[in-house]
Specification:
Elements: H1 3-10, H2 14-39, H3 42-87
Length: 88
Amino acid sequence: MHKASQVLMSTPTPDTGASMAKTSNLAIYGGSGTSIMFGFTPGEWQIIGVAGGILLGLAGFIVNVYYKHKHYKLAEANAGKAAGLADD
């Protein structure tokens, strides 16, 4: 190998550090995600699925009740305005 190519290959650039950090983070997160995905047994995935479904259903119910309450209050306020206009 030529001396010039050895110098170019051994000199880190600022982009190299950022690129290496991205690559190492990707490897770390990929490895941890893989270990989580393949670390559970089918029975554990069933429990996760059931628990997740229950939590999503509960969250959907809470959001639905919240917005129905807001809609009721808005309709009540609009009805009060309409009644006030009708009295004039």
